[in-house]
Design the sequence.
């Protein structure tokens, strides 16, 4: 049996992509599968935490022993995450939130013609940055950073700007890393300048190591 090291803790995890529609059958998204966030939520539940998982559209089934909230857009995710974060000891934002959404969503399917179609995009709220601004005393905030260049520099900048305790940086150029894969290659950066490099591991194993690391932060 897994030691109940997170007993009595409320943990909030976000996962998956968001869908940003511009008509009822078309939307902007990214290839996130939700696997990393689902693995983290399931592992936290195994350790005895009370877990809320907020996920965008994925084909993964609801994990056992926790509450899954299914949303579609970034703005839906923001609403649910904001409310649940009020009570959470630990928030892990593993979702690949769309940075932009179409300015307008047509109520009916857009008819094609021979002309070009222009979709104007506007910025979505940065959910994690919002949580960082309103961080509760003692709350631990963990983010992800998917990068294709200057991995450590970009991740460090996000850690500081979003007021995080840890950031998990994946280098999307590495084989076995990032979106959709069953494995990931990550570096874990903390607020004190510490950088831990993990080898290529399953997302389940990364979830265990990350939660071990987070538990050790709590004791600091
Ligand atoms: O700035 P960037 O999108 O690379 O930051 C990634 C981190 O911020 C992830 O933890 C992601 O879940 C979160 N994020 C968010 N809202 C956004 C964009 C990213 O919470 N609109």
Sequence:
């Amino acid at each position: 049996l897994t030691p109940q090291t997170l007993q009595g803790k409320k943990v909030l995890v976000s996962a998956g992509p968001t869908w940003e529609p511009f008509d009822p059958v078309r939307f902007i998204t990214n290839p996130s599968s939700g696997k990393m966030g689902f693995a983290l939520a399931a592992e936290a539940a195994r350790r005895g935490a009370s877990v809320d998982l907020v996920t965008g559209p994925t084909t993964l089934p609801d994990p056992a022993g926790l509450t899954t909230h299914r949303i579609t857009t970034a703005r839906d995710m923001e609403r649910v995450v904001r409310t649940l974060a009020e009570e959470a000891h630990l928030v892990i934002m593993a979702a690949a939130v769309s940075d932009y959404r179409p300015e307008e969503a047509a109520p009916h399917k857009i008819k094609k013609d021979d002309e070009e179609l222009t979709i104007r995009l506007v910025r979505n709220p940065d959910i994690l940055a919002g949580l960082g601004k309103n961080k509760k005393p003692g709350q631990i905030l963990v983010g992800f950073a998917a990068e294709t260049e200057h991995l450590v520099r970009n991740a460090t900048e996000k850690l500081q700007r979003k007021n995080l305790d840890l950031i998990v940086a994946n280098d999307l150029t590495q084989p076995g890393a990032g979106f959709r894969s069953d494995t990931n290659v990550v570096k874990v950066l903390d607020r004190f300048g510490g950088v831990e490099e993990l080898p290529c591991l399953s997302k389940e194993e990364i979830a265990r190591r990350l939660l071990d690391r987070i538990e050790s932060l709590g004791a600091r």
